[in-house]
Amino acid sequence: MTMLNVGRPTRPEGAVGGAGHTSLGGGRGLLQDEPLIFELGGWDKTGVDLPAADQDASDLGDLVRSAPIGLPGLSEPETMRHYVRLSQKNHAIDLALYPLGSCTMKHNPRLNEKMARLAGFADLHPLAPQSTVQGALALMDRLAHWLKTLTGMPAVALSPKAGAHGELCGLLSIRAAHEANGQGHRRTVLVPTSAHGTNPATAAFVGYSVVEIAQTEDGRVDIADLAAKLSPDVAAIMVTNPNTCGLFEREVIEIGRLTHEAGAYFYCDGANFNAIVGRVRPGDLGVDAMHINLHKTFSTPHGGGGPGAGPVVLSAALAPFAPAPWVVAGEDGFELVEEAEGEAAQAFGRMSAFHGQMGMFVRAYAYMLSHGADGLRQVAEDAVLNANYLKARLSSVMSPAFPEGPCMHEALFDDGWLDGTGVTTLDFAKAMIDEGFHPMTMYFPLVVHGAMLIEPTETEPKQELDRFCEALIALAGAAKAGEVDRFKGAPYLAPMRRLDETLAARKPRLTWRSDDKGVSPAPLAAE
Ligand SMILES: *Cc1c(COP(=O)(O)O)cnc(C)c1O
Question: Which residue's CA is minimally distant from atom 4 of ligand 1?
């Protein structure tokens, strides 16, 4: 029997790349192969047992359905097993490190979940009379207070439902402010080359044209290029800080000064706020608007785990243009201001129905209270420490994109170290899956060739970081030793092998028809 590098027996010979041992029915160990729910269900079954109706539902007249709608029928245990089996095929932050750079996949404390499930929060209806939801409004008011205090900004719009939605909110406020100031002719938004794709997409969605700002050798905004591109046509700049290369924009105050001098607003993409929370107040840096991903910085579940929320803090110049609604504290308690009249007349409208993601507000506020101001500061310190630990250990085998100096909360490598091995960033990421690790973010930011962006987050213990480093160092050794097959065919051990992700994104099969049952899927190209 052969042993793997941590001294335990390996899987049976030939498991990687060879025939290995395959089961007869597609299961693996105790993991079952799982069909679609539509393929599982008999149409004649149901998980509930309702008495027959004693009255004809004939009120519907001609609208009565003439054929069943084809919902799958499963008993309760079948339903439970279906979803639990599917969940076993997914990676989750509760299983292991989830080092997706820029995504901040950190542990979601269970205390937050407990708070969000309190009936007084979980069972609220958004149309309940305000006098009956004073506690919820008070929580929104406290959350707003913490967000304003942590960022040093005078106003916050809580309703945006994600980071990208917050960007939209920020740019709509900026557009409304320019229009109110007779500057509606400004049509351009400047965005650095390393920006997250949502930044230029949001600017384009609002109707602005996007002009790129160059990057310096050391991965920061090129100030000379910014100064050259700022003109009376520029409405705003969108800069991420720390940026998507995991680096702090050292010239950020100068960036703000130049922007304001040109009559434009400074939008900061605050998705990386967990790297500086409690240590830097963006309001002190000249920022006019910044979204905060509660699901990143303040640990609410996201990705497959939950909906996220993207409140936007606003400077005094933009505060009058915040979207409705907002909470005000009055003599008779809290009030949610919904109508665009009086003080709210300049609001550009609403970002969404109702007031935002209440469940995320509760989780984020619970996170803030359980950490306290000192704990939040330590969040930033630990996020940066963990990333620098990975950068230092992995630099022995991989090539850091910006070797000079420390990084912030994520460690960025290029693919220079894979030169001549025949292995690409994609191959390497797929081989990580066989080793039991979710890959890092690949090929982003675009300014770094074959980028591998690793964000460990502050909640990973050193032991897990070491396990991760040892897996990557062993894989890097295999790549350099010419074991190309280990990479090209990976993943060998995942429920699915290498999928055609481009085809899946371009031509997704989003429907299933009952006559598909038992028939192998038609080739995608035929649809
Ligand atoms: C995650 C992220 C966004 C988008 O946030 P969503 O909540 O996913 O919409 C924008 N910019 C950066 C830098 C991000 O990391």
Answer: 163
